[in-house]
Amino acid sequence: MSFVIARQPVFDKDGNVYGYEVYLRKSDNLEEYPKDVPYNKATFIMAELVAELGIQKVSEGKSIFINVALDTVLNRSLDLLPAKKVIFDLIKPQVEVGQTLYSTILKRIDELKEKGATFAINEDLYSGKYVDLFQRSYIVEFSVNRLDENRASAVKRNKKLLLVSRIENEEQYQKVKNFGDLFEGYHLGKPQVVKEFELAPFLKTTLMRMIAALNTVQSVREFANIIASDVGMSAKLLRFVNSAYFTKRKEIKDIVQACSYLGMDNLKKFTLLVAANDYVAAENPTLWKKSLIRAMVSEEIAKRKAPSLINEAYLAGLFSLIDQILGVDKVEFLREVNIDEEIIGAFTGENPELANILQYATRIEEALSEGGETFEETVKEVSQELGMSEMELKRIAVDAEVRAEELLRI
Questions:
Q1: Which of 98, 101, 111, 299 is close enough to 314 for a disulfide, judged by CB 3.0 to 4.6 Å?
Q2: Tens of pLDDT along 13-27?
């Protein structure tokens, strides 16, 4: 799957380029956002790639506008960008933001401003609810169809620059040019491709960093602190711990409580799962679902036949199709991201016990995909080989499919 970083010029009153809005788009349609990529992750991808390419190549040294959902401001990937050349255009949050979190976001904005960053707010945040954002912003953006003279006057009274976007024709431009300060739209300048890139290599790098981070965390509280700093991750953790994946008596509402409930092994599993879910699922959701099913079936078989290999069995299943999903050599990739050799042994043959568990799980998953008589016959064969009841094995397979569907939605 390929995407592009595109840029669109923003002009001042004199027709000079003030800066460029930079965004992610599908390679075959510069007007369409790639919906398979979660929005908060698009910001991360943008920050990484802009930092890699350099501001000179991306915007010829001029300032860049990057849309950032309010809850994504906390993402530390924004620190990769040259603050004095960045205008963070804040848009509505992707998850609910309470007062405590809102206060944390305001502190983060102040921190970025101290480093030299500039902030703009989108029209969706232009309300009394977000007056603190308005005060911290230098630019207010309105699309041409939602702007009137009263709003323009209010922005000017507060000594803010007014950015008018989505100008599609000369009539619209003439309507707003006298009270706007900055202007953007297809009529004035169309998007240009800065760089086209394949998602798979980027996913590989992201997973490598995530796994490296997992290997350095030493306590549940340290995990809780990391997760709490990412609103999207926090929301997903609470959905995960309260999902059908776990059985509990009451709902868990606190991040520290959730982390304590899961424990270190499950926390590592969750963090890796979310990282892969957000990125790998975008590349090939069908194969990723198959991987999830294999992981959970492998885990259940290990619980009954090899308890010391439960975690290894899960990860072997999870990575069983990574070569097809990312177009990489499986063993080489797993070694690059520092996966334990015991797990890699399931694919090299050096860990026959784990390899057998994965083989059984793969047979079950593939038969489940086909359904009907194939599934019934495979369950019968595998149950006899493993010494498990057909009913139990069938339940494991069906439950794994249900849980995989649920995890894909987290």
A1: 299
A2: 999 999 999 988 877
